[in-house]
User: Which sequence fits this backbone?
């Protein structure tokens, strides 16, 4: 069966185009309608906290039924319908409830779509993954840059309208994507508890949990931080876009890097560069050269770490438990880690100041490096082969 390249790519494109509006501009929208820094941090944390539960529920259902696309189509539509609630009223309590509702369904989709993509690619050695996934980055960068230019001319009050339109496009892209066939062999099946006895898996989860904690202030307050230092909305969008352009370049060349360095060395190097990134953001926010350099390091802090994670997950969990593995990864890193990152940055922004918040982010990345050096990707059985290196 031929790989449905463009249909898979379109889902990533619209999903991350939505993220390209939410990450840079949702906090600006919340600020404009009257929420303070603590409330913005809490609302952002609520959007992230549903990643702890939602992906696991959908992952269990997907592995049990094998109907991943049907579940993705349903949850992506429900996310758009619940999102309409933001037009009802603008109280903090109501916004919190709607945020929990729409993000529950929206956050459930991506981990299972990652599994769908990997199953479609299983007979090609997964060489096309990065070329499909880069369309998500393209969607993100076009959204960030394009929407930033538009909002400079109109108002951030239109942010919810733009997000809703993109959510409907995301749902339509799921409708046209075919279900992937799975061929798990009964004799090779292992129980999920047997898989989770592997200590390397837990070291892996702790590393990615800390990595997402370090990204918390970036995803929650980077746009606000730039605005406080005199950057325009268009310039803010341009800086976000620059980081994702570096990510796109990384995805297009990921196979060569993995083949040359291997997963372990790439992960360790990217974690060190993540420490450097947050240090530059903390102390050199007014230096455009340093800030630009920090944004280019997004290729390491997100691009490299994500590519490494996807390959390790497929090797750790195999076909039978891939839905659960993707869900655990999303829940423990982007969910729990993202929630903790959003909360500490929200409470620390006014009490400690922006600089110290990003210093804490650098410290979390440094701790992730130490744990990765001790316990991730050390065993021979997850060594990358030439055949499947090119995710």
Assistant:
């Amino acid at each position: 069966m031929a790989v449905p390249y463009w249909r898979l790519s379109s889902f990533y494109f619209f999903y991350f185009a939505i993220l390209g509006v939410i990450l840079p501009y949702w906090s600006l929208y919340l600020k404009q309608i009257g929420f303070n820094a603590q409330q913005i941090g809490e609302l952002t944390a609520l959007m992230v906290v549903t990643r702890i539960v939602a992906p696991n529920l959908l992952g269990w259902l997907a592995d049990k039924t094998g109907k991943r696309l049907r579940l993705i189509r349903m949850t992506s539509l429900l996310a758009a319908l619940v999102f309409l609630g933001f037009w009802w009223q603008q109280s903090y309590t109501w916004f919190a409830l709607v945020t929990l509702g729409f993000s529950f369904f929206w956050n459930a989709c991506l981990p299972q779509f990652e599994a769908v993509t990997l199953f479609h690619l299983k007979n090609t050695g997964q060489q096309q993954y990065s070329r499909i996934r880069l369309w998500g980055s393209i969607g993100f960068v076009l959204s960030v840059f394009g929407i930033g230019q538009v909002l400079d001319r109109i108002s951030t009050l239109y942010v919810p309208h733009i997000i809703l339109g993109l959510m409907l496009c995301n749902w339509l892209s799921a409708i046209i994507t075919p279900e992937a066939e799975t061929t798990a062999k009964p004799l090779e099946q292992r129980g999920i508890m047997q898989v989770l006895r592997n200590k390397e898996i837990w070291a892996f989860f702790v590393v990615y949990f800390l990595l997402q904690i370090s990204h918390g202030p970036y995803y929650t307050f980077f746009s606000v931080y730039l605005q406080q230092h005199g950057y325009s909305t268009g310039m803010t969008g341009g800086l976000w876009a620059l980081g994702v352009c570096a990510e796109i370049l990384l995805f297009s060349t990921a196979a060569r890097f993995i083949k040359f360095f291997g997963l372990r060395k790439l992960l360790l190097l990217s974690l060190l560069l993540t420490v450097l990134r947050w240090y530059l953001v903390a102390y050199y926010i007014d230096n455009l050269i340093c800030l630009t350099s920090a944004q280019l390091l997004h290729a390491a802090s997100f691009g490299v770490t994500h590519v490494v994670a996807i390959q390790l997950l497929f090797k750790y969990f195999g076909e039978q438990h891939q839905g659960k593995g993707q869900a655990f990864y999303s829940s423990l890193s982007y969910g729990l880690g993202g929630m903790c990152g959003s909360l500490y940055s929200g409470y620390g922004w006014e009490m400690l100041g922006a600089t110290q918040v990003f210093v804490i982010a650098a410290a979390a990345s440094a701790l992730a490096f130490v744990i990765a050096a001790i316990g991730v990707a050390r065993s021979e059985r997850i060594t990358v082969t030439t055949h499947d290196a090119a995710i």
